[in-house]
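INTERNAL TRANSFER SHEET
From: sequence group
To: structure group
Subject: alpha-1,6-mannosyl-glycoprotein 6-beta-N-acetylglucosaminyltransferase

Please process the attached sequence and return the structure record in the designated field. Keep the field labels unchanged so the import script can parse them.
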Amino acid sequence: MSRRNYCSNRIFVVGIGFFSLCFLMTSLGGQFSAKRLGDSPFTIRTEVLGGVESRGVLRKISDMLEVILKRMDSLSKLDNTSTTDARRLDELSSAINRFQPAGLVERIQAIAQNVSNMAIRVEQILQNSMVQGRAVRDGTSSQCEVPRDPRFPECPGKVDWMRARWTSDPCYAFYGVDGSDCSFLIYLSEVEWFCPPLAWRNHSSPPIQHAQQAKAPKRQAAFRTDLSVLLDQVGTGKESLSFMKRRIRRLAQQWATAANHLDAKLEQRWRDQKKILVHVGFLTEESGDVFSPKVLKGGPLGEMVQWADILTALHVLGHNLKISMSVKELQGFLGVPPGRGSCPLTGPLPFDLIYTDYHGLQQMKQHMGLSLKKHKCHIRVIDTFGTEPAYNHEEYATLHGYRTNWGYWNLNVRQYMTMFPHTPDNSFMGFVSEELNETEKRSIQQNKVNSMAVVYGKEASMWKVQGKEGFLQILHRYMEVHGTVYYETQRPPEVPAFVKNHGLLPQNELQQLLRKAKLFIGFGFPYEGPAPLEAIANGCIFLQPKFHPPHSSLNHEFFRGKPTSREVSSQHPYAEQYIGRPHVMTVDYNNSLEFDSAIREIMRTKVEPYLPYEYTCEGMLERVHSYIQHQDFCAPESPFIPANLSRQGSSSGSRITGPLFVPLPNSTALGWASNVTAPPAWPPLSSLRLLVSQEGQSCVEACHSASFICEPAHFRFINNKDALHGLEVQCEVVDSEINHILPAFSVVRRECGLQREPLLFSCAGHSPKYRRLCPCRDFRHGQVALCRDCL
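Return from structure group:
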C-alpha cells in the first residue's frame, strides 16, 4: 500500500472514531439535561447532575472536538505525510477507538483530558507535516541540521529538549516554534542564545519578535546631593517605606559631604551613567511582606536599613534609577505585558543593572520567563548571609547535597552582595552608620554613664535565652540595665523587673540612650545586624556571647536551609574579627567568672566612638562606585592560557619562558611576575598573593591568617600547572575535575586537581585531605572590599 493511501486510511479511521465520539457526547447530553432548541450536538447543558464543574468539562470536550474536526480536514489534504506521522495517526486512531460508553459520568474527566491530548497531537502532526513540506519545497531542510559547535556545547541537548517539550509552554509558539528542527534552531539562536546564528537567516534585518535597538551613547554620571527626587521615587503607603524615607532624610547631609569627598578623590574621572532597576522583592505584597507590619513593633529593620542606603548610594552616584516595590511595577519597567506569563523578553534588556533579592529573583523568573537565562548577568542579588559556590551551582548542589530553598541560580557568585564581608566569594555591599563630628564625640565622652548598660533586643522573644537570669544578675550587680522592648499595654514578662524598659524608641531617642550608655550587650540573637555598629559609633563597648560550637546550617535552625556552610563563632563575627578589643568583647556567657571579669574590665576601659571607614557614607559610595564601573559579568571571560602570555617589552607573539609567579619580599606568598604582561582583570593582578592552605583549611582562613583576603576573581589565573610549579608542589598526576575545593593537591598521594567548572571556584571550600591553592589579595585600609589599586 502506498504511504499516501495508508495515511488516508488512517485519517478515515480517525474520522470514524471522531464521529463515534460525537454520537457518544450527544447521547451523554441527553442523560444530563434536555437540549435547548438551537443547541449544536457539542453544546450540552448540564444542569441536573454536574453543575458548573461538569458544564465546564463538557464545554472543554466540545471545544476539543471542534478543533479535531478542523484538523482532520487539513490532514486529509496533505500529500507529504511521513512514516512517523503515519505512526502517530495509528496512535490517535487507537486512542479514539478506546472510548467506551460505560461509566459515563465517572469518566468525563478522563475523556476530556484524552480529547485534549488528541487535539494537541493532531496539531503537532499537522504543523510538522506542513513545515517539513515547506522545507522540502524551499530547499532549507538540509540547512537545519543540529550544529556541533564547541562554542555552543548545549545546543544539541536543547534541541532534543525542544523536540520533546516544545508544547509545554505557549511562549514557544508565540515566537514561531512549530515543531520543526528549523524553528527550534531559529528560536534557540535568536530568542535564546544556546545555538549559533543560522547562516541562511537574514541577519541584516531584525528577526521577527526580536527587534534590535541601536546602542545608546554613553552618558557621564554626575554626583547628586539633592535627594528629593529619590524620596518621591520610594513611594508611600507602607510603614517600611516611611522608615526608609526617614532614614534617607536623616543622613542626607552626610551623603552630600561624602559625595563631595569622593568626587575630589576621583579627580573628575569619567564614570558611565547606568540605567538601574531596583526591585525590592521582600517588600512586595506578592512575597507576603511580613516586615512592614512589624516596623513599629520591634521587628527586624536591618534589611530596610541596607536597602535605603543602597538606593541612596545609587542615586548620589548619579545613575538613572527606577524603583519597583510590586510585581506590577516590575512588569511595567521590564516591558512585560500583564498576563503574558513566562514568555521571555526579546531584544536588549532596558537596564544595565538590576538590584534585587531572592524574592525578587523568583518573581523575575516568573515574569521575565526564559529570558532570565540570557539577562541574568545584569542582576545583583542583595543577600544578607551570603551564598557559597557549592550551593549556587544547581547541578552540583543537587548531586552533592547542597541544594536548599535558596541558591542554585548558577550566577557568578560575586553577583551576590552581602551585608558584612563574611563571604569573600560574594561582593560586600554593606550599609552605613551615622558618623559623628568631633564636637559630638567630645560631648559623648564627657557624658558617658559608666554604670549604664543597654540590652540589644527589641522583641520580647529575644529575651527568651536559656540561662539569662544568671548573667543578667551579674550585670545588674554592677550596672543599671536598660531595655527597648516593644509592648502595647503590659510589660513583657520575659523582661526582668530590675530592667528599666523604655519601650520601642524612635531612632533619635535610641541614639541619645546609646550616647549615655557604657555597654551595649547582646544575648546571641539577632545575628549580624546593624545595631552593634551604631552602638560602637556612639561610644559603647559591645559585649556578645561566644558560640561553642559555632552556629551553622548543620547545627542551628536559624541557618538551616540558607545557601552557606559558614560557621558563626559569635553573635556578630564582623565586630569580633574586624573591630575587636577594646570596642568589642566576646566571652563565654556560661562561664560566670569570665562574664564577671569582662563587666569589670568594661567599666575600667575608656573608648572613643569608632566607625569603620567601610561603613561610612563615603566608604559605601567608594565601594559601590567601583563595583558598577568595573564588575562586568556579561563579557565572556576567555580561558586563561599562560603559554599565550609575553614578557613586557618583548616583541609581539614571543612567549614567556620564566615563572608566572615569583616570591614576594618578607612574605610566604607569591606574586605575579612584574616582567610578564598581566591580562586585563579587576581587581588587577598586581593585588594577587598566591598562598597554599593547610589540610582542612579554606582559602578564607588561609588568606585571613596572612592578613589578606581571598579574591575569587583571581582563581582563573592560578588554576594551572604554572601555579603548582611556582609553589613547588610535587604532582605525579594532574587531573581536571568538577569539585568546589579545586584547585588543590594531596601531599600524601601526590595528586593535584584543577577546576573544570568556573562557577565552582570557591574561597569557602575545604577538605581534610587536601591543601588548596588560594588566590589572596591585599586591601585598602578600612575598605576590605577593594584592593590597593582597585579605586
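Handover comment: The chain has a mean pLDDT of 83. The longest strand covers residues 541-551.
Transfer complete.
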